[in-house]
Specification:
The protein is built from 16 helices and ten strands. It is of the alpha+beta class. It has a domain of 237 residues. A four-stranded antiparallel beta sheet has the order 1-2-7-4, with helices on both faces. A two-stranded parallel ribbon has the order 3-10. A two-stranded antiparallel ribbon has the order 5-6. Helix 14 packs parallel to helix 16. The longest helix is centred in the middle third of the chain and has 20 residues. It comes from Chitinimonas lacunae.
Length: 363
Amino acid sequence: MHKGSSDKPLDFAALAQQIKHWGQELGFDALAIGPADPSASAERGLADWLEAGYHGDMDYMASHGMKRARPAELVPGTLRLISVRMNYRAPAAFPAETVLQDGRRAFVSRYALGRDYHKVLRRRLQQLAERIETAIGPFGYRAFVDSAPVLEVEAATRAGLGWRGKHTLLLTREHGSYFFLGELFTDLPLPLDPPAAQEHCGRCRRCLDVCPTGAIVAPYRLDARRCVSYLTIELKGPIPPELRPLIGNRVYGCDDCQLFCPWNRFAVDSREADFAVRNGLDDVTLLELFSWSETDFQNRLAGTAIYRIGYERWLRNIAVGLGNAPADPAIVAALEARADHPSELVREHIDWALACQRDKAAG
């Protein structure tokens, strides 16, 4: 049994309230406590999704089997999942819709405009654990931020932080969906918060209708193999040629299902300085990004989520954007200047982009 510094049994209800207070102090916009027992519906959903092959090349999605839906198997001794969310929408960022409408600009998913969220949230979760440890002594815990086999939306839904939207992301009536999620697995028997009472998507299907590649194949069901975020971030090889024209000018991720979600009318700007726009990535041209050397890429994007894909895939993605851009001799010249790039992956996409540009110029 966990005991406080006086060796008396802990008041876990009071501790839960204190944890929520500490969470606010650490910059989390919401914190709730959910169960660690397996969810039968989550297990079935994960099994069906994997069986359909919707995870594509993300082998890690299948490698842990049902542990993703069984927190106590993933981290033995886990009794509760402390779920947190933190808003990421950068104040005063250039309008995403304007960027998407201009084929010469490069669209970067709004979550990636600032510092790498993995580092920010993991550090705050560690600080939260340290505050708990200072108050009650050693206890079992492990922090997760989108980097391990955790069904984060499921955990957040069961803790009552929101409901799963038809685009598969977590939604709230107060803040929409522009936020990050994280979890602190713990062996503390904290009182549970009530799960979300209901979902509020109703008959709306805007997220399905606006998805540029048709990746949301049915409500609450995403085929990652068609998702622009998967294609520009997770996929290591060539982007399927038939999907390249549909990607448009999205060079890192895609926000369309969120941009057109009615609940994001209530989205709130982030209070976190680390999520402010860096390197002008909210309003930059494809040509400018394509001109970066590998050293430029490393110096400017170190410490961001984008850095994780590496320079080669960065050029691959921008080449696709340039191929989809309006006909422009300057674009052709830039592509030709890199046509002999040492990477076969980059060369393939440059060749495709050049063919697209020449077709457009020919009328």
